[in-house]
Write a structure and sequence with these properties.
This protein has 63 residues and is an alpha+beta fold. It has one helix at residues 46-61; strands spanning 4-8, 19-24, 27-32, 42-45.
Length: 63
């Protein structure tokens, strides 16, 4: 599976200590920016990733 469109959070400090997300049909890939294209990729179903993001947003909106 090939992931494209890699990006990191706009809230991320401009250094290499972040994670990036990339996209493939039905999946989201997560990798470590320190390793870039050589990083292992954690592949998550896009619906599960959307649920995760909703939980994060809900949690941070309470703070």
């Amino acid at each position: 599976m090939e992931f494209t469109g890699w990006r990191k959070s706009s809230r991320s400090i401009q250094n290499d200590n972040c994670v990036e997300v990339g996209f493939a049909p039905g999946h989201v890939g997560i990798r470590d920016t320190k390793l870039g294209a050589d990083s292992p990729i954690l592949s998550i179903d896009e619906k599960a990733f959307a649920t995760f993001l909703t939980g994060v947003r809900d949690r941070w909106s309470d703070i």
